[in-house]
Each structure stands twice: as structure tokens, then as C-alpha cells.
Amino acid sequence: MRPRFYVPDLDATAARVPLPDDEAEHLARVLRLGVGAEVEVFDGRGGLWLAEVVETGRRSAAVRALEAVTPAPEIAIAVDLVISVLKADKMDDVVRDAVMLGVTGIHPVISERSEISLSAVEKSQRVSRWQRIAISSAKQCGRAVVPVVHPAVTWAAYLSESVGAVRLICVEPSAGPPSTPRDPVGPPFMGGRVSTMRDIPKPLAVHVIVGPEGGWAPVELTAALSAGAVPLSLGGRTLRADAAPLVALTALLTTWSEL
Amino acid sequence: MRPRFYVPDLDATAARVPLPDDEAEHLARVLRLGVGAEVEVFDGRGGLWLAEVVETGRRSAAVRALEAVTPAPEIAIAVDLVISVLKADKMDDVVRDAVMLGVTGIHPVISERSEISLSAVEKSQRVSRWQRIAISSAKQCGRAVVPVVHPAVTWAAYLSESVGAVRLICVEPSAGPPSTPRDPVGPPFMGGRVSTMRDIPKPLAVHVIVGPEGGWAPVELTAALSAGAVPLSLGGRTLRADAAPLVALTALLTTWSEL
After folding, report:
1. Per-residue pLDDT tens for A138-170?
2. N or C terminus of chain B: which is more exposed, having fewer CB within 10 Å?
3. pTM for the structure as a whole
4. Cβ-nearest to A142 among B97, B143, B238
5. SS3 readout for B121-154
């Protein structure tokens, strides 16, 4: 695989495309590529090109696009992951994996049982870190689209947004066993019903919502259902919080023939 | 959730069921439970009981089964994960997650690009460690079945076994894009075709095979196909080696309505 560089304002018709500082440094100082080296550049919005290096400096580099290349396929619908912020390295893995699976965006939320506060997320500039991980993961998995990592918000703030998407909130097996052929609508759940994958018709846009290690507080679940979120069962076995996003996304994409 | 203890030779009709040493120590010294405490015990073969503690010592404990409890549902078919051994903590996570998803067994294999040798796996008693992780994960996810972690073997040795199961070997996107409605059989691959999830009818028993970080050596793939393994695409985006098992298992279980 050729080294890939992210150039957000890429003009593929220009004779000289300068790379952003960090990408240039990676090209020139880490990989030690010189003029004439073949690389790939992508604009994060779906454009990917074969390119050659035309200039390198101590911390600068420029390339020229040679021809368009077909990137890894994108999902035909918009799938966003809404995730109650997990501990540091687990959250990094979740961002990386969600990008690999093809999400359009990631929304970190702070819920009652999150292990970190909103101000701590903001102070530690975590969102910038997750955005860099999203770029790196896009490079690795072959996507030419860089998903957006949205600013972290409280659960209440997230629910008050108009997202223009179906909201699916993943619930624990204790919310009731998944529906069976004998009981196709499933058990009652907070005045409604828990859906399974098969019940969810393929939407144009969806937010897949995964809770914290300790689960949602009842008042948070109630607020989600009031905001129109559909409770979704991920099966009868309890999943670890850091594995649940990958399982939920994979199962939904498989159901909708979009893996 | 009540504390759960694993008692492989459990006799639910006995007035006094002694716990194995490590489980007894956990009950008495870590959780500090006393006589009369309510716990759950399971035999690893599908039996789960509500029980009460009837005796505790410094490092011993005994319980009495009160009534059978319904455990988390098991998959109706036998799904084994065959995995080229990954680095330490990643492999631990893979074992944990595979058990959560409901596998019947785990087969660690050493392939050409594995990051550890067979003798190193044997010397470090990794298989015992993974078996303990499998027990712990069964407790956490609510299963009363403990999947078997088989001894690590070389790739050639694994392929020479008669497993009585459909072998599905996960291949990289570079093996060809997944099949599309226009090209339902997919692109050619080493003289055959790469299948997608939808092509695989639900088997009675299946081995899902996932390769190392660096992928399979061509000679290893050829040997797999000669042994009857079916190449399976996990979609067009390259997955990290430690995420691939979870994605493959989830996608297949979803396809077969067994999540």
C-alpha cells in the first residue's frame, strides 16, 4: 500500500499541492520520501488520487495529483455513532473501529454514568485527539472520507438537537429477551417494545446510540424514548461497553446489506 | 446481578456443593460473602442455579443449589473462532469478545505472520490464561456454557484436522471487492470466488477463521482453499486484525438470525 496523506483543501488540478504541516513532516522526516516518490492523497470528502512528490523541505512537502483512484466503498446511508464517552484507550479504539466500519460521524456524549465529565473532555482536548484518530483510521482502512467527530455534549443537549435521523438506542439484555418467532414484537419495555435488528427498516440516516459501562440511568432512557429514540436489543448476551459499538454497527450494516 | 461462580462438576441435588479453590477464594476473601448469601453457580455446560452459601473457610466455600435459573441464550449452531494468535492484550480482548458473542470454541493457530511462535505460546501457558478469560467472560455476559479454548497448533496442523464444520476464511478487501447485485458471484480469487455473508447458508457447525495483522501468506491461503475453506469478504474497508473477529462473528450471526 502506498503512503497516504490527508489534504483537506486539495486541488487535484494544481501543479503543486502543498501538504499540511503535520502530513508534510510525516512524509519528509518520518517516511523520508523524496521528489518523485509515489503516494496517495485524499481530501476527506471522497476524493483519492495517485500523486507524486514534487518538493520536500525540512518540514514542508508538495505533491502533484496524477490520476484519480477508487477508494474503499462508502455506505449508501448516513450512519452516525453516538457514544457515551469511555475511558481513554477504549474510546480511542471505538473511534478507530467505527471509522473502519464506515460511519459518517461520531457524537461523544456525557451521560450520568460516564467515567469522565464534560469539562474534563473539553480541557483535555479529547475531541481533537479523536478527530486525528479518525483521520488515521480512514488512511488505514482505505476510506477517502474523514468522518466528523462532533464536540462532546451532555445527553440532554444531544437529545434536544434535531438530527434528521432515526435514533436507535442500544439497550441491555435485561430490558427483555429479544423477540422470538413466537413473540415477534418482543417484551414490553418502559411502555413500549424493544426492537431487534430485523425490525428496523433501512433508513436514509441513522444515529446508533451506545451507553456507558454502567448502562443508562432510567431517567436518561425515558428522555431518549420521549425524544423518539427506538430501543434496540443487541441479543441475549451482555456485551462489554467497548465492544457494543462495533457489534451494533456491524449487525445493523449486515442487516441493511451495507457492511 | 448476583455474583456467579463456576463449578465444573456441579451436582445440583447435593446438600453441599464445594467450590473449586480459586472460586472459593473469590467468594470468601475477595467478595467476603458469608453463610446465607445468595449467589449463582453454573456448570459450564448450560446449567445455572440460584444458590445459597452454606459454608465458608479461609480458602474454601460450599453452596447449596436452590433452583434452576434461565441463562443467557445459546446459539443454535456451533460457531468456533479460529484465530491467528495476536499480541497479548489484543488476544485477551478477542477471547473475551468471542465468548460474549456466543462461540462454542476458540482455536488459536500460529501462521507464518503471527507475532509469536508456537513454543512461546506453550511456554507462557497462554492457553490456560485464555481459558480463564473465557470463564470470566461467560460469567460477565450471562452464559452458563464455558467455551473450550483448544491448544494452539500450527496452521498446517489445524488444516489437517477433520473438524466436521464449514470452514470460512476471512480475506482482505484486496482479494477483490464484495459482490454486487450486478456481479452476484464476486470477483475471481485464487481460482475460485470470494463469498459475502449473504452467500453462506446457515450451517450446523462453522469455523470462522481470522488471520494475523500482516494477513495470510499466499501458500497458507492456497492450503486453506485446498482443505475446502470458503474465502469470505468482510466488506470493502480494511479492518484491524483485532477487530476482524468481532466483525466477522457479528455479521455471520446477524445473517443467520443468531445474534
Report:
1. 999 999 999 999 999 999 999 999 999 999 999
2. N
3. 0.91
4. B238
5. HHHCCHHHHHHHHHHHHHHHHCCCECCEECCCEE
